[in-house]
Amino acid sequence: MAITIAIASGKGGTGKTTTSANLSVALTKFGKDVIVLDLDIAMANLELVMGLDGKSITLNDVLAGRADIMDAIYDGPNGVKVVPAGISLDAFRKAKPERLADVLTKLYGMCDIMILDCPAGIGKEALTAISAAEHLILLVNPEISSISDALKVVAISKRFETNILGAIINRASLEDTELSSKAIETILEVPILGIIPEDPNIRRSAAFGEPIVLKYPDSPASQAIMQIAAKLTGKEYVPKKTEEKSLVKKFIKGLFGGKK
C-alpha cells in the first residue's frame, strides 16, 4: 500500500513543482516506486519539468470523467511514473476535484510513494489535495510572507488530520535578510527536513525539461534534494563536496597557471 505525500505551499512561486519533480526522481534513486501527480489542474507545469508536455490524456481528462487514470500515467525520468494535469481549458472546466479520492485509490497498489504536487494557496483544489493525502510537506522560501502563508496551510492540514512531516526551505541564499531555519521551525512548529540553496542549474535543467538531480547531480540543489529523499526513506546519503572558489582564488589561479 502506497503512502501519499502532498507537497504544498501557502503562496505561488516557491518552486513547489520543481521540488516535487526532483524529489520524486530522487526517491526512485533510493529504490522506491514513485508516482507523482500534478494536482495543480489550473496551472499545470509538472509535465514541462519532466519533459512530458503534449500528452493527449491527462488528469484533467480523468477528473472530467472522460478517461481512465491508467491511461494518464506516463513513464518519466529514472523510472518515476508521472500523471500530468494537462493544459486543455475544456478538460479543466469539466474537471471535478472531488473525484480525486477515487483516482488515488486506484493507484495505491501501483507504487511505494505517491507525491501530490498541490496547487498553491488554500483554494478548493488545494484543500481537496491536502485532505486526500496522508502526509504533507510544506515548501517555503526563507521570507516572512512565505512563512505567513504557510501557517494557513499548517492550520488546514491539522483540521484535515493530515500528518505534517516537516518543511523544506527552498531558494535559500543565506543572506542576512532571510529568516533562519531555526526561526522558521519555531514559527511553523514543524521540523525542517532540508534546505535547498539557490542554484542557477535549476533554471538550466528546466530549460532542458530534465530534473536537476539527473541533469546536474553534483550541483548544490541536487545534493540537498538527495539528502531530503534519503531522510524520507531512512537511508544514509553522504553529499559530495562542492568546492566554490572565490573571485580571489580564481584570480590567483589565473596568475599562477592553476598552481595552488
TrEMBL record:
One of its Pfam families is: ParA
**Is the keyword Magnesium assigned to this protein?**
no
Binding locations of ATP: 11-18
Alphabetical list of InterPro entries matching this protein: MinD_archaea, MinD_FleN, P-loop_NTPase, ParA/MinD_ATPase, YlxH/NBP35
From the Swiss-Prot or TrEMBL record, what is one GO molecular function term? ATP hydrolysis activity
State the GO CC annotations: cytoplasmic side of plasma membrane; cytosol
Kindly state which keywords UniProt assigns to this record, in alphabetical order: ATP-binding, Cell cycle, Cell division, Nucleotide-binding
Name used for this protein in its record: Cell division ATPase MinD
Q: Which organism is it from?
A: Methanococcus aeolicus (strain ATCC BAA-1280 / DSM 17508 / OCM 812 / Nankai-3)
